[in-house]
Each structure stands twice: as C-alpha cells, then as structure tokens.
Design a protein that fits this description.
It is built from 12 helices and 11 strands. By secondary structure, it is an alpha/beta fold. Strand 4 and strand 5 form a beta hairpin. Helix 7 crosses helix 8.
Length: 325
C-alpha cells in the first residue's frame, strides 16, 4: 500500500538572505534536491516541500537547521551543506549540534567540527583529562586539538600550551644538525607551527612563545618534567615507543589536560619496533578520565577523493590480513 504524500511549508525569516541559504544560482538548493526525492518549490521567502512524510520531515528539518546556522553567523558552502545532509540522513546529530559548535574564532572565521566523529572527539577533549584520537590524515586530529588548546589558553583555563611530537626521521642525528635547537627541530614541528600560526596570528605567536605561554619541542625534551596548569598535545604519537609514551603520560601535572593523536597505519619506527600508540589502548582502556576516539574515512575533511583513498587503503589492508579461504 503506497504511503500518502504530504506538503510542508517553511517561511524563511526576512532577515536571512535566500541567496545565502540557497546559494548563487541555487547551487546549494540543487545539492538538497539531488539528495532527496521530495519536490522543493521556492517562492519568495517560502519553501514548499512535497513528498513522503518521513522524507519531507527530514528535508524540512534540514532547511530549519541551515537557517539556524546562518543566524549563528555560519557561512553556508557546498561542503557544509553536504555535511549537513549527511548528518540529517544519519539522524544521530543535527548540523547545529556539530557544525554550530564553534571552538574558536580566528581572523573572523569560526573553527568547528565538521563531522559527527569530530564532534565526539571535541566533546571527549572537553570531558576527559586525557584524550586519544586515532585516525587517518585529514580527520582534524591535530587541528581540532590545537583549536581546543588555544581556546583554553584564551579563556585562562590553562596558563600554557605545550605541543610535542617525536622527531623519528632524525633519530640520533638531531644533535649533529647545524643551528639552534629550534632550527634543528623546525622541519618536524612545522605542522604544529602552521596550526598555531593560523589560530593566533603572525604577531601573537612569537610573543606567546617568548613569554613561555606556548612551547613547541620534540618529545625527548619532555623527560624529567612535571607539566602543571597546561594543555599538552602529543602529535604523530604512532611514532613513539611504548617507553616514550609512558614517559610522556607521566609528565601530566595538576590542572592539566593532554591530547594524544596519531595514525596507526603510518608508523615510521624501525622494523620490529612496537608503537606506543598501539600498545596504550590495551593498557589504559579501563581507566576513568581517559577517552579513546577512533576517526575514519567519513571524518576526512579534505577533498572527497582523499576519503576514497583512505577507504581504499583500509579495504586493501583488510584483504591482506585475511587468511586465505
């Protein structure tokens, strides 16, 4: 028995531009029309949606959410509308809950999670003393951690940021390189500098580093320290040994938070050397105040082809590890 169609009308508030909502030459509207079977008719500030009840309700909720994002100052793009459609179809969270969760405003641009997985990661960083993020490149592991850390520094929740990562490629040769410590480690720290630079600005970052409010150093320079009142990020943690991971985790002092992130499919340690990031979940998974977030291809926020590449490699690795049938 065929289900009856219904019709829903949505009146867009007069202070919201229909161009901002629907896009130049209706490019954003076309994305919505392609994603759903409902008929969508726009006249002035009124949107009429016709079709099966469940579908019409989803499309109506999508437009209401997009209007709410505009009211919060969010600029709609093909990417953000596409992600909003995925969230509405997934029915696990709304676009305002995910895209509207602004961690930090930098240079007039809000930084927020883009996927449900990223939102769960952000929420974990807010709740937990120690958060682990494990996933492929492009899932926002470092970027969102730095945004959360800079926000905590701005709001005086902590007095300093410490960003560290292993300089695996240099090995024991680091001491033989010419220049100062920072000149030696700069190539390995550059991704962290890039994120900090974007979020604090060209003038602010050197001043913060000079005053000790921001420190960027390889993990070897964490040994023997107790880090109080700090937000600490360990990047590329898949390249730590179990001993280095334990050393880092035991640096955590009073009033501090730590975020550890990495990609266990990109381990650069010598053959046979175990990764500290692989071991740590087995060791710490039952402790309170610690959360593990696993991000995947759906959380990649780069070009869509990057999602497909990540997924293709995952499937390839699965096939290689399966026993012959």
């Amino acid at each position: 028995m065929a289900r009856a169609n219904i019709q829903v009308k949505i009146l867009v508030p007069g202070d919201q531009s229909m161009v901002a909502l629907l896009g130049q030459r209706d490019e954003l509207l076309k994305l919505v029309e392609a994603a759903f079977d409902s008929e969508i008719v726009v006249r002035g500030n009124e949107i009429t949606i016709s079709g099966p009840e469940a579908e019409v309700e989803r499309v109506g909720l999508l437009f209401e959410e997009l209007v709410a994002l505009l009211e919060r100052g969010h600029q709609l793009t093909a990417s953000s509308v596409g992600r909003s459609i995925e969230l509405i179809k997934g029915e696990e969270a709304t676009p305002t809950e995910v895209l509207g969760d602004v961690l930090l405003t930098s240079r007039g641009k809000g930084i927020s999670p883009k996927t449900l997985g990223q939102k769960r990661y952000v929420d974990a960083m807010r709740r937990a003393t120690l958060t682990f993020a494990i996933g492929p490149a492009g899932t926002g592991k470092t970027y969102l951690a730095v945004a959360t850390a800079v926000g905590a520094l701005r709001e005086k929740q902590v007095s300093r940021l410490i960003l560290t990562r292993p300089a695996v490629e240099a090995g024991e040769r680091l001491g033989f390189l010419p220049g100062t410590l920072y000149e030696k480690i700069d190539p390995y720290m550059k991704p962290l500098y890039d994120a900090l630079f974007e979020m604090t600005g060209a003038d602010t970052l050197p001043r913060l580093m000079e005053h000790g409010a921001v420190e960027v150093a390889p993990i070897a320079y964490m040994r023997g320290r107790t880090l109080n009142d700090s937000f600490i990020i360990l990047d590329e943690a898949q390249n730590t040994t179990p001993e280095q991971m334990k050393m880092f985790l035991t640096r955590l002092g009073f009033g501090s938070k730590a975020v550890v992130n990495g990609d266990v499919t990109q381990i650069d340690l010598p053959n046979g050397q175990q990764s500290g990031l692989v071991v740590v979940e087995e060791v710490l998974q039952d402790l309170d105040g610690i959360e593990f977030c696993h991000l995947g291809a759906r959380d990649v926020v780069r070009h869509k082809i990057v999602q497909e590449i990540v997924e293709a490699y995952r499937l390839h690795d699965e096939r290689r590890t399966q026993p012959n049938g």
